[in-house]
Design goal:
By secondary structure, the protein is mainly β. 2% of the residues lie in helices and 46% in strands. The protein is built from 1 helix and 18 strands. A 5-stranded antiparallel beta sheet has the order 1-2-3-8-7, with no helix packed on it. A hairpin with a 4-residue loop joins strand 13 and strand 14.
Length: 257
């Protein structure tokens, strides 16, 4: 009867009163746990320095658990670029040639690109029985830091000095809000407004909708459109994030004993 009552309608479980229903059966069973899954993880000190291009990093330690392996890393304070941890490509290989981290979603990076310390996780070789492991780092995306943003006065249209790769910035006020038109010289390479980021006068990120019109030849210019919406400050800052892609194969050996 209860099944018939709710067959054709959506049921919110939190609204059901247990007193309205009769318990028709109950089950008792034993759940056997594998004791190896209850063991505490192992912390392995590594302190191994490595370079991604001309940027220096350290693999401080590795945490080894039955369900995952975690690398704790740190960037050198003298680095001129920031590393996006989620851009790291990496995997682990044991002495039997088994690979850990190649499967989709098996490799995940955590941490802020503005933080020196971050950690990355991959599949665990806990049950492989291997006493040695090699960590491979094969790719990363870095962006230059310490570049001064361009200050734009939305009331007067005046800007601070522009870099060589920006021709002009024009401010227009429309019914839907203020629009920035940023022009850059023609290049044969594909360009994208993702290289730019907007910040308010205090330096806080401000999300904007963007548009892009690519120049077809050297007589034209690229146009990047930034739609500021209801932004209500007089000054907005435009930062240019130049991304550097690194590829290679950094190998770090670990002893799991």
């Amino acid at each position: 009867g209860n099944v018939e009552q709710f067959r054709d309608q959506e049921v919110n479980a939190s609204s059901l009163d247990p007193a309205d229903y009769e318990t028709t059966a109950s089950f008792t069973f034993t759940l056997k746990l594998d004791p190896t899954l209850l063991k505490a993880g192992q912390m392995i000190d590594v302190e191994q320095d490595f370079e991604l291009g001309d940027q220096n990093f350290t693999l401080n330690s590795v945490e080894f658990y039955p369900t995952f392996l975690q690398m704790n890393l740190e960037s050198d304070p003298s680095n001129t670029c920031l590393l996006n941890p989620t851009s790291l490509d990496y995997y682990a290989e044991d002495r039997n040639g088994n690979i850990y981290g190649e499967k989709i979603n098996a490799v995940t990076g955590y941490g802020s690109s503005d933080s020196r310390e971050f950690y990355c996780r991959l599949e665990s070789p806990w049950f492989s029985g291997s006493s040695q492991l090699i960590i491979h780092i094969t790719g990363a995306a870095l962006r230059e830091k310490d570049t001064d943003p361009i200050e734009i006065n939305l009331k007067t249209g005046k800007t601070s000095s522009l870099p060589d790769d920006i021709t002009s910035i024009t401010v227009t006020h429309e019914k839907s809000g203020t629009v920035l038109d940023i022009t850059t010289p023609y290049t044969e390479e594909d360009s994208s407004p993702e290289n730019f980021a907007c910040y308010d006068s205090a330096g806080n990120p401000y999300n904007v909708n963007t548009g892009f019109s690519k120049a077809l030849n050297s007589d034209e210019e690229n146009h990047y459109y930034f739609y500021l919406g209801d932004y209500d400050q007089e000054i907005i800052l435009l930062g240019q994030e130049n991304e550097i892609l690194w590829e290679g194969d950094i190998c770090i050996s670990l002893n799991l004993d």
